[in-house]
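[Meeting: bench + compute handoff]

Bench side (C.D.) handed over the final construct sequence. Compute side (W.E.) agreed to return the predicted structure before the next meeting so the bench team could plan truncations. Sequence as handed over:
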Amino acid sequence: MYATWTLFLKEIRRFWKVGVQTVAAPVMTAFLYLLIFGHALSGRAPSLGGVEYTAFLVPGLIMMSVLQNAFANASSSLIQSKVMGNMVFLLLTPLRPIQIFIAYVGAAIVRGVVVGLGVLLCTVWFVDMNGISHVVWMLVFLLLGSALLGVMGLLAGIWAEKFDQLATFQNFIIMPATFLSGVFYSIHSLPNFWQKATHLNPFFYMIDGFRYGFFGVSDVNPWLSLGMVGVALVLVSALTLVLLARGYKMRY
């Protein structure tokens, strides 16, 4: 595990070295979302499960930041190695696919959690923290969500050969799936067709499960959310490990 630990630390130091860009910027973005949407819709949006709208936004924004940054960490690191031509130094090591997988996904989880904690610290006064009674659920969805997006970032980095391909993956898959997952609204406010469509989005289950940990209310049963996120994580992880073992778009 020493080699895995070394690669893991390298990935953490990589994003921490430019912490203003990788940590402070997304925290500021989430805080601005809260100020703008909270001010614009507070008093106009209906009470959601008895939760005031500005408070309702907080867990969604935290989870959105966690997911986007976990994805960005793994994907950007791999595509940079490809474009700069130093991927060979990783491939020449005796690291097995599972070790590369653990190191990259582990670092993505760390970045996602760090950004999430930053957003929480900036928005904590909008939520009654004493009323939180499902801390375990929060931690479970925080870790599973960041792990899933870390794996997806690794998968995108394997598939992409240049930065614009990675941007396509992020702008047309990750970003829409995040914004259409109930971050800014309850799905019960949507027409019936769009409610059913939202249930096909795995990002919805991550955010809804994390929100349940905050308020004890959710749009679907948290056990269903846990099962959906767990199944998605297993499937995407299996695919990514197969591609790593074959050296798909990495060796050639």
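W.E. noted at the follow-up: The chain has a mean pLDDT of 89. C.D. will use this when planning the next construct.
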